[in-house]
Amino acid sequence: MRKKPDWLVYERAVARLMSDQLSTELAVTANAHVTGRITGIKRQIDVLIDARHNTDNSRRVIVDAKRRRRKIDVKDVEAFLGLMRDVEATHGYLVCPAGFTKAAQHRAQSYVSICLLPLDRLGEFDPASWPACRDPKCKTGRIFWDGYPEMTMVLQPVGVVLVPSIRKSVVHYVGKCDRCSAFHVKCTECDAVLLIPHADEDDVGHQCGCRPAWFWLASTECDRRNIYSAELHVVDLVNGSIQTVDRRSL
Ligand SMILES: [Zn+2]
Ligand SMILES: [Zn+2]
């Protein structure tokens, strides 16, 4: 008997591969749920790619990892084109483990790229090594890191003019749980992993044990076309600036 493929591992491998190839200007969400503009219902998307720093969903790309052993055919491509239209994606990637028919390739035209990723190519990939979601209510979620913002601390010695200020850069990981979508931040200095809730009005922000000059805060934003997204911000207390470092559409 052939071993049943672990489709969740496949889906996570596709998300990781996609994210690793993209510019950090793009925010990647694994297992996203976005409201369809035509259907009005939540559509599940294996990998959603949107702008990272702006509330702008006009150049959206989606990826579908096909969980099947047979070849992708015309019907699969048409269903995917329907999903793309509903969530207003400008381009799509259909990733399949077992190939595709010629007709499917013709139907894909230039809107859809069909990619082949056989199951036996996953190699050593093991999402069990990903950190678990920090929300105790979320039992199976893993944190999918997709951005790596760098923050600079400037330490100016008090009262001594001749001593130069000390600049120290700290890299962070930012990402989302791939089941409940909660934002997470990891500080590479103290290794703290913070859960940043986004729909909590009373939330005043989160800092790691380093007590840096900034804190993390998430909120819901809306773009020009009335599409909502959850956004993760870093608030710089010294400069009074707010930067969007990660997003996911709602
Ligand atoms: Zn979770
Ligand atoms: Zn820290």
Give a written overview of the molecule.
The structure is a single chain. With about 250 residues, the protein is mainly β. About 15% of the residues lie in helices and about 40% in strands. Strands 1-2-3-4-5 form a 5-stranded mixed sheet, sandwiched between helices. Strands 6, 7, 8, 9 and 10 form a 5-stranded antiparallel sheet that branches. Helix 2 runs parallel beside helix 3 (about 100-110). The protein starts with 6 loop residues before the first helix and ends with a strand. The mean pLDDT is about 90. It binds zinc ion (2 copies).
Summarize the structure.
This protein is mainly beta and 250 residues long. The protein has helices at 7-21, 74-86, 102-108; strands spanning 26-35, 42-51, 61-65, 91-96, 112-116, 143-147, 150-155, 166-177, 183-187, 193-196, 214-222, 228-236, 241-249.
Mean pLDDT: 91
Outline type = elongated
Helix fraction, binned, reads 10-25%
Could you say which small molecules are bound to this protein?
A: zinc ion
Please work out how many helical segments DSSP would assign.
3
Overall SS class: mainly beta
If strands are numbered along the chain, what order do they take across the biggest sheet? Answer: 1-2-3-4-5
Share of residues in strands: 35-45%
Q: Could you give the distance between the termini?
A: 41 Å
| Count of individual beta strands | 13
Estimated radius of gyration: 20 Å
| Low-confidence runs of at least 5 consecutive residues | none
Q: SSE string, helix = H, strand = E?
A: HEEEHEHEEEEEEEEE
